[in-house]
DNA sequence: CGCAGTGGACTAGCCCGTCCAGTCCATTTA
DNA sequence: TAAATGGACTGGACGGGCTAGTCCACTGCG
């Protein structure tokens, strides 16, 4: 019976358990291969090669292809989510409020435009798009993926935008009866066409097209909610 | 040298060429199996069985799995597109204009709501959704699918809506500076969340949720474009 | 010494695409 | 009318290729 509570180690040898470095290498290779090939065409041998690891090690760490897949998707999903928060300081600071007013300056239209620009950037990031396509392709046959996407990606952004609209509304700058709904609407307007194109892998939405989209979305909201 | 222009026939035997009935049966089975299983997991043997046809016949008609797949997607795409037009008499009559004013009565809000309701119905049809998921999953590895979706599905609907907005605008009922853009915006508002849920295969958007979506979308446009 | 990791062989299974002998049948020919 | 004809279709077998997952003898290191 073991009495210490530290990491299990035997009488001699390195700290027990699979090596985290190997695990990480396998995960990264798995992400790359699954995003590139999809679940079925991705072969465990290729993943092992690409991770510079023996196939047996892959099975030691993850058990089978299915579980490796789930873990890889989760890994990439966290990477993308981290990009949401970290890469967008004005959305949520570390404490969730520090930069909460970053978009409160200027007029409403300018703030919405800046916000829309940012939303498109994070949503149309190439790896995020590839992950979306992969999950859509496989979620029907791998129900464990469901939680990975059920919340919807832009949740946090919508929430922040709703707060911004609420503040501008209480300042009398706008007249927004339901800020949460309005935020959803703005994000839908901004995101729709870009998502469509990223899903079908057609041309990835030129900068001026994107600009036209979020500018007219901002115009629409400002017109509708002028006080 | 043949002199008649009828279907090729040899000295004896039934009219030459593969039997269209078989071809159709194969196509329908292929659609069913591909939508159900995806490209890789769908096996030609299963499709042949389900079409009550021998595997050799499948290969006689379509050459290989790839071409069968393309043909199946095209078949289903046409079926969905037909549903767009035929099933929605108020969008385009047989001559393209007969019912063009079907939504011109009533006030703008009511017309937009009715229109949004219809758009959601055709876009979230279960088979249409399954086709969308399949194409998204495979378009990267089967470039021949590109044309099948490049135009975007709701094109026709958007065009009609733009015309309706234009008419109401010239009647002074609304003030829509750019009807085409406004139509795109309305469709984006209506469609976004439902598409999202149908892609990820989560719960298929209850009726009251759908109603809330297109009602508030109609409200937004009416507010923004009041004369 | 003990254990994570290696590399390669191996099993078992699936699937595409081909092949072939034989059936069916509408039409032509005798 | 009866036989011949040739093409579409059948059903089952099979080759070749790829893959998931297992096994094992071996290595290197703390």
UniProtKB/TrEMBL annotation, chains A, B:
Region feature (Disordered): 1-22
Start and end residues of each HTH tetR-type domain: 20-80
Highest taxon of the lineage: Bacteria
A Gene Ontology BP annotation from the UniProt entry: negative regulation of DNA-templated transcription
Swiss-Prot/TrEMBL keywords: DNA-binding, Transcription, Transcription regulation
InterPro entries the UniProt entry points to: Homeodomain-like_sf, HTH-type_TetR-like_transc_reg, HTH_TetR, Tet_transcr_reg_TetR-rel_C_sf, TetR_C_Proteobacteria
PROSITE patterns associated with the record: HTH_TETR_2 (PS50977)
DNA-binding region: 43-62
Record flagged with keyword Transit peptide: no
Example of a GO MF term: DNA-binding transcription factor activity
Keyword Transcription regulation in record: yes
Protein name: TetR/AcrR family transcriptional regulator
Species, as recorded: Streptomyces malaysiensis subsp. samsunensis
């Amino acid at each position: 019976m073991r009495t210490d509570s530290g990491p299990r180690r035997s009488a001699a040898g390195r700290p027990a358990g699979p090596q985290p470095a190997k695990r990480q290498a396998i995960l990264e290779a798995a992400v790359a291969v699954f995003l590139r090939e999809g679940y079925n065409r991705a072969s465990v041998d290729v993943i092992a090669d690409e991770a510079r690891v023996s196939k047996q090690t892959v099975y030691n760490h993850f058990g089978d292809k299915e579980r490796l897949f789930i873990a890889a998707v989760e890994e990439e999903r966290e990477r993308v989510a981290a990009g949401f928060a970290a890469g967008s300081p004005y959305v949520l600071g570390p404490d969730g409020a520090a930069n909460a007013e970053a978009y409160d300056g200027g007029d409403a239209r300018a703030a919405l435009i800046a916000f829309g620009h940012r939303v498109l950037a994070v949503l149309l990031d190439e790896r995020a798009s590839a992950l979306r396509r992969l999950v859509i392709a496989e979620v029907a046959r791998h129900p464990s993926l469901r939680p990975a996407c059920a919340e919807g990606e832009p949740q946090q952004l919508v929430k922040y935008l709703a707060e911004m609209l609420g503040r501008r509304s209480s300042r009398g700058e706008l007249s927004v009866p339901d800020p949460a709904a309005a935020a959803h609407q703005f994000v839908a307007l901004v995101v729709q066409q870009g998502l469509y194109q990223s899903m079908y892998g057609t041309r990835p939405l030129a900068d001026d097209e994107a600009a036209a989209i979020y500018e007219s979305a901002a115009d629409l909201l400002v017109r509708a909610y002028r006080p």
